[in-house]
Amino acid sequence: MKEHVRQVELLNRAxxxxxxxxxxxxxxxxxxxxxxxxxxxxxxxxxxxxxxxxVAKARHAVSSMALETFALxxxxxxxxxxxxxxxxxxxxxxxxxxxxxxxELLATAPWNRSTPSQAGKYKGVGRVLIATAIHLxxxxxxxxxxxxxxxxxSQSWYRVTLGLTDCGYDVAKDMHYFExxxxxxxxxxxx
Amino acid sequence: xxRRQMTLMLSDKEMNLLDNLASHxxxxxxxxxxxxxxxxxxxxxxxxxxxxxxxxxxxxKAKTELMVL
Lengths: 191, 69
Fold this sequence. Notes:
Largest interface: A-B, 14 and 16 residues
CATH topology of chain A: Aminopeptidase
Distance between the termini of chain B: 31 Å
Structural class of chain B: mainly alpha
Order of helices and strands of chain A: EEHHEEEEHEHEEH
Number of domains of chain B: 1
Structural class of chain A: alpha+beta
Number of strands of chain A: 9
Order of helices and strands of chain B: HHEE
Strand order of the largest sheet of chain A: 6-1-2-3-4-5-7-9-8
CATH superfamily of chain A: Gcn5-related N-acetyltransferase (GNAT)
Oligomer: heterodimer
Strand content of chain A: 35-45%
Largest sheet of chain A: 9 strands, mixed
Shape of chain B: extended
Helix content of chain A: 25-40%
Number of domains of chain A: 1
Strand order of the largest sheet of chain B: 1-2
CATH class of chain A: Alpha Beta
C-alpha cells in the first residue's frame, strides 16, 4: 500500500521558489497514470530510459520483499520515480559483501530534464530520491550504503556532485558501477 | 508500513547463530532476519523461473549449484 515517507522541497527554477513535495513508498494508480499520460508523451525519442516500464516493475515489486518503489510528487504530479533492490551486496573492496540498497532505476520526469535550450522545471528530484535510498539503507541496518549503475550522462553527477565512488566499467551491464560507503553517506547528509 | 508482531522460539544453537551473524554483519537481529527472508525469496524465485544459482570456488573455479527444494 502506498505510504507517505517524508515531506521535502524542490526548487522551481522558473519562479526561484522552493515548493513542498512528498516522497511515497510504493506507487499507485495516480503514479501509473502520470507515467502513461504525462511522462511518455514528454520523452524525446533518444531518451535512454524511455523504455523503462515503471508500471510493470512497480506491480512486480509489490510481491517481492527485495524490491521497493518510491515516487516523488510535487504540484500534484509525479516528478520522480525510483526502484531499489535490498537483496544486494557491495563490491567495493572496503565494504565487499556488506548489504546495501541497489538503485535499479531512477528517473526524473521529462519536464525536469535540462536541455541546452531550456532548464528543467524542478531541481533536486534526483538528489531527493538518492537521499531516500540512503535513508532506507540506514533504516534497514545497511549503514547508508547504496550501489547503482549509471547512464553515461549521469556519471559525473554521481561521482562529483553526490560523492559516490566510481568502481569502474562493469562489462556485464555495459555501464559504470558506483557505490556509496557508510562514511560517504554521512558526508552526503552533512553537505 | 504496517507491522505485525510474532514470537519466534529459537534453540540455543539457532540463537547463537543469529547473534553471531548479526554481530558479524553489524546489523540488528530483526534486520538480519528480514534480509534472510529477502534473500531466500529472491533465490527461490530465480530457481522457480528456471535460473540457476551457483557458488564458485575462487581458487579452482569449480561451481556448485545451489538447490532450493
